[in-house]
């Protein structure tokens, strides 16, 4: 505990004294009780004396017990208070009305008590020049109002002292150190004067002005007096200069004085000195009317009508009325307060940091507002928030796509089962085909969500973009229509890239269609490719492109352009400027996801009314271009082939498991079902059970697919594996499943795709 050794000495001594009296009284009463027994008193007095003795004894015992309980309660209260004050970061004391220390926390002992001291003013003599006066003033206010606070300025630091009145004429004192001068960030001189006009502190601008920190008021003015027009001449190393002193804050005996540079000529003071200050600054009334504004403030804020314009109409962004903020700044003189606000300018978006300081001028309260252009800072903040939002939406999109793929697998799968039992002459056949086609359309939309969340399946191969674009140019010409002219420009020494050809074609088509829609009256779309070599890292739009070689693909249009405030939103999912029915808002977000998953970057530049340019950067592939692998595929008209073997199907979604089981059994396979990895391992505990292939979901509650398969293959190393997932191959992470004899089947899959995947694994 942090109680000092003299804690409660008076009360403890009084308890000991009372305790002695009670013991003496009890002995006397005990003797009175024994007197009749020894015949000291007449027998007719015996009962009366004995009764009196017992009464004295009982009263003494009760009084002693009450005194002991009171002392114990007080010790417990002191112990609780000591433990509470130990949690405070500031130096704290508890004293009685005479200033005697009852409790001091560890911070107070370390900072103020170099040796044992019983009185608070004795402990503060090393910090304050006259601590007794300060303590008496604050204690009187605290006793009258319950609490008092004052900033006491000493050389090199400002100490916030607060006194709180407790019960039993006790006071809690708190001392908070403020080593940094509150006006250090101000770009004009501010000097803090104390008792007898002694300089207690000066900010950096003041020490730069004088070349040192002055000692007192006389050194500041060097015998000069303040003129009637409030101009003071101050001696500086460069000579005397005129300044206008203004009271910023007064706390106790400390006064913060602002020295505003001015001109010798009174007529020029208003138009020259204040107007040419090197920082945007305004003088405001308590209601927010702009009384003065210098040249930089007018450039930053815009048109200002002195005496009529109100900042409440020029700024916004607090979430509550500006006038409430101004009122609080007027009432609170604890120091400058800052807020980030947005100017209501129509020509451009500007954020400003506004710092308000309360001043007194001719007995009236005004506010000095120092402005700082914070547009770049708020832009960086918005970009960071945008990056976090894009990541969160990507995770959400991936999760939604996973669940939808499970639903679509069950819908299209059971539809395939129904189509097996209906021929084209059946009246229900057309309805089943419609269900199947719309399920496929839904699957395409989900694949765009997966592309945005960067979890779609990619089949990377080494590509020459000239060949890829040439193969696609006929389709692109049909997409843009007759009003739009499509031109190509290739780098003659274009290097290969490693990408999924199908997904890269999707990127180009989406960018070209987006450019076409930006030119309703027609125009030209240019596709340009070139090799870009970066010798140093390129930082742009929250991304850092590392040094190296890249192939750039630019899609440039001459359309309406994108407004500056909308430019960073174009890659957000479902964000679109098109009317309902003209687009889903997933085109550019799909492009963003594909490019990022490929390891590239995409940037956008636009000028309103002149056009937009999308730039895609893809890293150059180190591998040599090879012929595309030829994958034998069954003819489109060939149906699923019959097979035989034992399949262990592990799927936590019951509809998907039911469809897969029926589909495999229809093709001749023996199917064992399990709804979790744990159930599958329990089935495999029977070593006599023969299993030829595992068909398992990747993401499941509890143990996931790759984990249980690795465990099962310790005893069954020859079993083949088919992994299936709505997350596609991204569910494995960056390293893949790392399991031999395994294949991957993305959801949603059809009956034919499932049975063909199992057939390929077994044959």
Summarize the structure.
The protein is α+β, with helices and mostly antiparallel strands and 763 residues long.
Description of the molecule:
- With 763 residues, the chain is α+β, with helices and mostly antiparallel strands.
- The chain folds into seven domains: 9-84; 88-178, Beta-Lactamase (2-Layer Sandwich), CATH 3.30.450; 190-271, no CATH class; 274-373, Beta-Lactamase, CATH 3.30.450.20; 378-445, Helix Hairpins; 460-619, Histidine kinase-like ATPase, C-terminal domain (Heat Shock Protein 90, 2-Layer Sandwich); 646-762, Response regulator (Rossmann fold, 3-Layer(aba) Sandwich), CATH 3.40.50.2300.
- It is 38% helix and 25% strand.
- Helix 1 (9-38) packs antiparallel against helix 2 (43-86), helix 11 (375-420) packs antiparallel against helix 12 (429-452) and helix 12 crosses helix 15 (587-598).
- The chain starts with 8 loop residues before the first helix and ends with a helix.
